[in-house]
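[job 0412] stage=complex_fold ligand=flavin mononucleotide status=START
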Amino acid sequence: MSVAASSPPRPRGGGARPQSAGHGCDATEPGWTDGVYLPRMHIPALIQDRRSVRKFTNRPVSREEIEALLAAAVLAPNHRLTQPWRFYVLGPESRYAYGLALGDRKARKLPDPEAARALREAVAAEHRDLPCMIAVAVVQSDNLEVREEDYAAAMMAVENLALAAVALGLGTHIKTGGVMGDAASRAAVGVGDGERVVATVNVGEPADAAPAKTRAPAGAFTIWRP
Ligand SMILES: Cc1cc2nc3c(=O)[nH]c(=O)nc-3n(C[C@H](O)[C@H](O)[C@H](O)COP(=O)(O)O)c2cc1C
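[job 0412] stage=complex_fold status=DONE, emitting structure tokens
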């Protein structure tokens, strides 16, 4: 199945013609996917540069850019090639409805009805105004082992998407939470029966350069066995 885009997405730095996307990428070379432009990427730099981006500029994310991100997502490893992921690219109406579902949850904690109404509306409007939001769902296998593998594969697809976004000069915010199982959020996504939403990913041009959140070194979590 081809997901060819008619024109290349804007690489990091913008411009009508593909230019260097940074990270040692040569954006003038074709990407690895059939028909979809993606810059060649230096993965360690992309991993280091990825951040959870909470504030975006109002520059729209093009359909071609979204298609390029999803082309990277579906290259994730997946056992038995089940390709368990489903991607719902939400437009402003759907984002607003998803935001209402999330706002409802938050508003329940407020005793003052007016404050609750205002919060609900604010969360909904915040979601409507996002440049791009993708809900990632996984098809639920009846087999528990396959179901676990498929969940893992879907989250690997999410990481591919997040790294590809960095290569295109975009940022992402992966989000989860109980809201994903609510009837209202499922209706907003229009998720299919037998599918579970496992993450939402906000995508856009970062409004500022967020500092890296430091981690303990890998050695702190590593046990070497003989
Ligand atoms: C599976 C997953 C779920 C997440 N869910 C949320 C979320 O619900 N809300 C949120 O603000 N951030 C969420 N995040 C983002 C993390 O908080 C973030 O990755 C962490 O703070 C480290 O920051 P960094 O991504 O900038 O390195 C999630 C990340 C992952 C991988």
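Residues 3 and 67 are 7 Å apart (CA to CA).
[job 0412] exit 0
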